[in-house]
Amino acid sequence: METSRRRYMTRPDEPLLLASSAADHVGRYTQMVEEMGLPPEKILSTAVSSVPLPVRQGDQLDHRWPEVAAEAMWHPLLWLPHQLAGRYNATVDGENFRETDTLWAIRVALELSASGLYDIETGGWADVLASVGIDVDEESDLERVAAWQAGEVDADLDSIDLTELFAPEPGVSQTWAMEDAIRLETLVVESSWVRMADDLIDLVHAADGSPTEDEDARRMVAMIAPDVFADVPFDVDELCDPDATIAAVLAKLSEVANLYRPTLAELEQLVETPDQAGSTAG
After folding, report:
1. How far apart are the C-alpha atoms of 253 and 196, rounded to whole Å?
2. 50, 226 Cβ separation under 8 angstroms
3. How does the average pLDDT of the chain come out, rounded?
4. DSSP letters along 259-279, please?
């Protein structure tokens, strides 16, 4: 049976690794809060991922998400199986560590792309509810989903389990995505700095190419910078200061972009559409 798909946030040919722009990084987080109904504390927004990610907290073991709008419950990000929704406690080179937000976001991007739940060609997501005959465009079906979210039993909704879609091919490590995420982490993080710096450089230029004195543009840089550039290994205080001169902001953004641009080129050459045989070359 052909998979029913819906578009939400992503565009055709947009990979799940790396936010496509500063505006998308901020706007999609706001969109998830306002349209899905998720509270900020249940969303991970990171520039290594093109979309913000819902985060289960505490003892949440099912997929009911009572705070989410019923019409949004078709989205596969709300139905991740436990092994993907949770964090690995991994051992690498003999050392134990818990999977970080960054590694988890990279792993989710890799596994979602490999599973077929996200189609990069169309930018479309599989409609999970359609797989059990539920249409979120029908009011009666929305009422049914809302009742289930509130605790009612529903055999169809209770039966949804996407685990098999994330099973690796025979001979492929069960932890292939985690292994790839660890291998790609530095490349992806540094590439996100380039992507964001380039976009913010465009933001603080006027239409004629000259630096703008638009205070909103400087405030946007100052709002994004503490999160996006937090781990840049040199001083980026100018980017976090809404009162910094536009010349200082441009100089620092250019420094970041130019220093790490070879990393972005390496990542773009290395990573193709992920598959379960491993997502990286070499």
Report:
1. 9
2. no
3. 89
4. HHHHHHHHHHHHB-S--TT-S
Can you give the pLDDT at residue 90?
67
Nearest to 180 by CA among 91, 266, 52, 281: 281
Contact (Cβ atoms closer than 8 angstroms) between residue 78 and residue 72: yes
**Ramachandran region, residue 84 (left: φ > 0; alpha: ψ -120 to 50; beta: rest):** alpha
Token look-up 């976001």 returns: 105
What is the C-alpha separation between 132 and 127, in angstroms, rounded?
A: 10
- Long-range pairs, 81-87, Cβ under 8 A, ≥24: 81/161, 81/162, 81/163, 81/166, 83/163, 83/166, 84/108, 84/111, 84/166, 85/56, 86/56
**Residues 6 or more apart from 180 whose CB is under 8 A from it?**
106, 107, 110, 274, 278, 279, 280
State whether the Cα torsion 82-161-76-180 is positive or negative: positive
Which tokens in the block code for residue 85?
């929704």
Note the pLDDT tens digit of each residue in 106-155.
Answer: 999 999 999 999 999 999 999 999 999 999 999 999 999 999 999 999 99
Instruction: Give mean pLDDT, residues 274-278.
Output: 44
pLDDT reported for residue 274: 43
How many Cα atoms within 13 Å fall on the side-chain side of residue 145? 26
Q: Is 16 helix (H, G, I), strand (E, B) or coil?
A: coil
Run of H or E residues at 237: helix 237-240
Please tell me the distance from the alpha carbon of residue 236 to that of residue 243, in angstroms, as a whole number: 14
The token pair that represents 229 in the structure block = 């550039």
